[in-house]
Amino acid sequence: MRLxxxxxxxxxxxxxxLPASPxxxxxxxxxxxxxxxxxxxxxYVCADSAGRKLYVARTGPAPRIDVFDLDTLEAVxxxxxxxxxxxxxxxxxxxxxxxxxxxxxxxxxxxxPIRTIEVEGRPDGILDDEYDQRIYVFSHAAPxxxxxxxxxxxxxxxxxxxxxxxxxxxxxxxxxxxxxxDRAGVAVLDGSTLKVTATYALAGxxxxxxxxxxxxxxxxxxxxxxxxxxxxxxxALSGRLLAxxxxxxxxxxxxxxxxxxxxxxxxxxxxxxxxxxxxPTTFVLEQxxxxxxxxxxxxxxxxxxxxxxxxxxxxxxxxxxxRGPMVPGSFTILVVAR
Length: 338
Hints:
Elements (H helix, E strand, L loop, with lengths): L2 E3 L3 H8 L12 E6 L6 E8 L4 E7 L4 E6 L5 E6 L3 E7 L4 E6 L2 E5 L5 E5 L5 E7 L4 E6 L5 E5 L5 E5 L5 E6 L4 E6 L4 E6 L4 E7 L5 E9 L4 E8 L2 E6 L5 E6 L4 E7 L4 E6 L3 E9 L2 E9 L6 E4 L6 E5 L20 E6 L1
Parallel strand pairs: 1-18
Antiparallel strand pairs: 2-29, 3-4, 4-5, 5-6, 7-8, 8-9, 9-10, 11-12, 12-13, 13-14, 15-16, 16-17, 17-18, 19-20, 20-21, 21-22, 23-24, 24-25, 25-26, 27-28, 28-29
């Protein structure tokens, strides 16, 4: 793996003095809150804008993929006996995939299972690259990436990234960018060769990068970092540092809306950060939207521009535990819009 270390001393000085993201007025607000309830944990949320469905993988005694109407948020079904972290859908083939082991594959129209695909590692994140109709399944354990043909469900190949991948994005030209959380970098993959062509390192000045978004038209990466709570903007072609801005604490997802030129990051502290791209090299913190504690993952409905987040309420944490049990019936879907 070739490592490009960026000159980011300035980032370290800035990050050390950054305050927590301030809450202030702006165009976005929580316009709807729905509590569909249901037992089981959750991680990622997937908005299938073409098929008008919202997918949430639920873990626990009755693992499944809960499916909602993207417009009404009413439950429309479930894909049972699938324990996964996330979902990706391919609009061309109308196939859905879960980051489970084995990977589950279904028809997004009927929600009927098609097949399962054997994979290794511990599937976590997942991405559909519409450019070549490939599904990328990411694992913190090797092999870090398993690539699947979205039309057939056949495995195309695997590769290792030398670290733990989190969120990934595709540029629509055959390149995939992947957060490497424990290496504080972004790996650049060539989809045609399934090889890492570069890694853009944050040089130890920011880390815990768990959210990643991309302005494909202007080649800008938005790298959301938990440590110390900053969004790092990089040139996607060279890895050059463009800017940094503060975000909330506990980020676990980011998206970019090309229609508005805005990047969004969701945080466990109950904030949604909105960063406006005013030019390909300048950015401003537009707004911090208060959501709910724990709502750290998000999805963009490209059809409406709405942001969807998921969260729940949790009881007191037992001694030595990170958090307490989920309050029954508290699982929540939040909609943020102008």
